[in-house]
User: Which sequence fits this backbone?
């Protein structure tokens, strides 16, 4: 069968796919290019940047499945795909550690003002006073969303001596307690946490979860982190709270629009911004590439017509 890989996945994943199927890697197709290219392909593999919308699905007249090399499915029109009878897959495991470590990297960078201090030294300055930081020890980390990544963040933050508050309507307080997490409703978490980090997919339920009203409930001097999905945190409200000095800083890897051209966060103080790279470690990319390739192979094998028996 023919597989179109439209965003970069690890060589290990490509090789697994190519051992069984005809694989074309075509990176950088624009929406029209993707619609033009898709008709002969049985499977389409993307990461998070290529939008697999209803028009792509309609153009994919040979498509049997759409696979996303990453967590969640938010760049795939799942309803249109299912209505067209397609299998929809993702790779939820491989980048857990990368995303958790990036969350902590952003937190430390914000708390210790690392990018600004680095820029200052490179500019030939020798200033220490503007770069006084805050310690994580003894602070409360509020984790919104206790799936794989949220739990991995909590575990690592505990090693820094942080207390962990958690909110997830789908995880019981008993499970939280077993992991040393104090379960609470979102409002209480916002009011108690020194740092709030979101680890939820973008859905109708989570869109603007941290909106202006939620951001107003945050403790003065709190830090906000988002390596999950753009749109979960209201960028304009967050930027306003940073400019007002109500919040101490933010670490952001994902945006309402990517790239975030014109985002108010670009000019917000003490904000560390990265270009959706939380999953971009060598280890995670191999793990995700292999995970998605194995899932695609299994799904295509299950769908393939039985081979004609040889006589
Ligand atoms: C994910 O959802 O796993 C990542 O955002 C995928 C990516 O890095 O493109």
Assistant:
């Amino acid at each position: 069968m023919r597989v179109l890989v439209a965003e970069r996945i690890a060589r290990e994943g490509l090789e697994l796919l190519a051992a069984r199927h005809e694989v074309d890697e075509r990176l950088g197709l624009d929406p029209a290019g993707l619609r033009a290219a898709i008709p002969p392909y049985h499977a389409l593999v993307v990461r998070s940047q290529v939008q697999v919308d209803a028009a792509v699905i309609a153009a994919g007249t040979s498509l049997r499945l759409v696979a996303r090399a990453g967590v969640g499915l938010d760049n795939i029109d799942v309803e249109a795909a299912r209505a067209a009878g397609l299998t929809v897959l993702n790779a939820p495991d491989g980048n857990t550690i990368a995303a958790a470590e990036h969350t902590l990297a952003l937190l430390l960078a914000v708390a210790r003002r690392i990018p600004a201090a680095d820029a200052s030294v490179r500019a030939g300055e020798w200033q220490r006073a503007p770069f006084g930081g805050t310690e994580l020890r003894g602070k409360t980390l509020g984790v919104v969303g206790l799936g794989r990544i949220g739990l991995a963040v909590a575990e690592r933050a505990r090693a820094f001596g942080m207390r962990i508050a958690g909110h997830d309507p789908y995880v019981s307080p008993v499970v939280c307690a077993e992991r040393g997490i104090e379960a609470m409703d979102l409002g209480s978490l916002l009011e108690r946490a020194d740092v709030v980090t979101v680890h939820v997919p973008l859905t109708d339920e989570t869109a603007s979860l941290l909106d202006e009203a939620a951001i107003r409930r945050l403790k003065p001097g709190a830090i906000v982190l988002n390596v999950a999905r753009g749109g979960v945190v209201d960028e304009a409200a967050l930027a306003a709270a940073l400019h007002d000095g109500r919040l101490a800083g933010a670490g952001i890897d994902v945006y309402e629009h990517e790239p975030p051209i014109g985002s108010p966060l670009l000019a917000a103080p003490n904000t560390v911004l990265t270009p959706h790279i939380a999953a971009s470690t060598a280890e995670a990319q191999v793990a995700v590439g292999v995970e998605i390739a194995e899932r695609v192979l299994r799904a295509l094998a299950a769908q393939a017509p039985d081979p004609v028996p040889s006589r």
